[in-house]
Amino acid sequence: MTTSMPWWPRTVTGAAGAAPQTSHTVAGPPGGSGAPPYCGTAAGAGGPATVCGAAYLRFWIVKSLLHANPMVLFVGNPLYVMYLRALGARIGRDVTILSRSVPVCTDLLTIGAGTVIRKDAFFLGYRACAGRIQTGRITLGREVFVGEKTVLDIDTALGDGAQLGHASALYRGQEVPAGERRHGSPAQPTEVDHVRVPPARCGRLRRTTFALTSLVQLYLVYLPLAVGGLYMVCAEVPALHRRLEAGTQGASIATLVLDALLVATVVFFGAVLLGLVALFAASRLLRLAVRPERVYPLYGFPYALHRAVSALTNIRFFTWLFGDSSYIVPYLRGLGYDLSTVEQTGSNFGTEVAHETPFLVKVGSGTMVADGLSVLNAEFSSTSFRVTPVSIGARNFLGNNIAFPAGARTGDNCLLATKVMVPLDGEMRQGVGLLGSPCFEIPRTVERDARFDHLRTGEALRRNLAAKNRYNLRSMALHLLLRWLHTVLLTAFALLTAGLYGTLGHVVVGGYLAFSLLVTTGYYVLVERCIASFRPLRPRLCSIYDPYFWWHERLWKVPEHYLNLFNGTPFKALLWRLMGVRIGRRVFDDGCFITERTLTAIGDDCTLNAGSKIQCHSQEDGTFKSDHTTLGAGVTLGVGAHVHYGVTVGDGAVLAPDSFLMKGEEVPPNARWAGNPAAPTAK
Question: Are 11 and 44 in contact (CB under 8 A)?
């Protein structure tokens, strides 16, 4: 039996057996309008507390500790399930969790035996809405399957043997009956069976052995190598050894700068070169142990090697470096992608491309892929897995944030819109566009998007591609230089304080981490504003071979990983303002991402949930489009919601979790929109 954690304030409300809820004020909503269904507050809930109050502060501290805990590195391991049990979650036997989205309200989470949760699924147990943090139960029965890129809102449930497909969502109060299958956003009935790999023998002994082996590797291999390697570096590198010796604190500034330049150069460029060697060599050796279409039990040697290949080949630094340029093609080909018939466009792939294994991905000629593609070429049950080839047809265009599964019913010349649910049933789609979740057909292209086709053929293509390649090379060199300079700054401060470690120890380490965060944040904010010449972007409609687009792509290469450290704090809104977002007061941002900062306006008292995104551009085939997006006062974006360009959202409006608000939409004040694509819904 699970009891409430002492750190978690809760009030049980409603009828007997109803889900417990808590509601804490984050930022007061404008006006006095009634709460919508997505933002309803249970009658009788405890009194609200401001964002500066103790209730929300406790919540934020717990959430931050959970995200910082190194146990997150054990996702996909039985140790992670044990960790969630220790936090209060009621989890049965043989549960496999592959999602790195850490549930915060673990005492409200129930997972039955034999359940599988795929990666990139949200099951947080809380959400922010209309200025309040709301919590609710998430209940999964036995042998449940939760697909990739899904959202489970609070107060949702799946019965025994139920399934929720990829790119789908359960809204608050929705329940999938036992044995039934759902897909779509919001979820609706389907006959598709998403568990397509046969079971294998995977008992408690195998799981226990795998968990213990992981701990042994951590404490007897990885940590000694890391600590011993650091000690050897400090002892053998003259610049570091001198700094650690007593009485050397008076070294000159020139010596400090030279030492920092030397150490940073060796560390940064050495890591880049060694990373490429590991990607192209070690991953190819590891793949030999996992054969396509063969069923393997979980938590064995093949499973460990498969996870190693997945981790090695999904390092984001290299897709960030090579993406949005011609050089992403040889990089992915080197990883193992089958791009033998590729037609080079200079924008074949964006900066975010993920896969389970790169050796079973084939992409047809003339296909272009935007950011956020996740190729699902590994299938899982609660006891087994297998890797399966995935083929993306020729002359396709894939929009943002798409999960592409094995067995997809799409062929050549298809347009897959942003956040589309790629179909697994029905006839093979050819020469059409697909939109929504579940998807429906739309025209493959429209006349306005074909105006730049003449720039993508013959001599014009050769000339434009050569010019784009030259520009992209300069962008790559610039950002390598900027990343290296950032490493130099951190190294210089480390050398400056290294001699104090023997006397002050943990104080020095803590101070260095705080300094690193401040320097990293200020540095990359300044870098972005300098690249943009401290001027706002303007709406554009142009070809991908227009020099403006190349400059715009350069902005996407500025790192933004540090922003996640400020989620749920007032500092996140301050950072957006420094980066050019026109943002109001008391905005609560729990993990939103904004692609074009200076094209975005956000009103007072808005609530932006984890995984939400405001994207003020679109790239369809060879055409780039961007425009302003404006959120009025008191707007709420649900978990995983996606807002496109040219959108205006009225005051007090609510966009439900996992919804996709398409380009050019105008949402009236106080309206409630939901779905993919989003449409008005009853209050």
Answer: yes
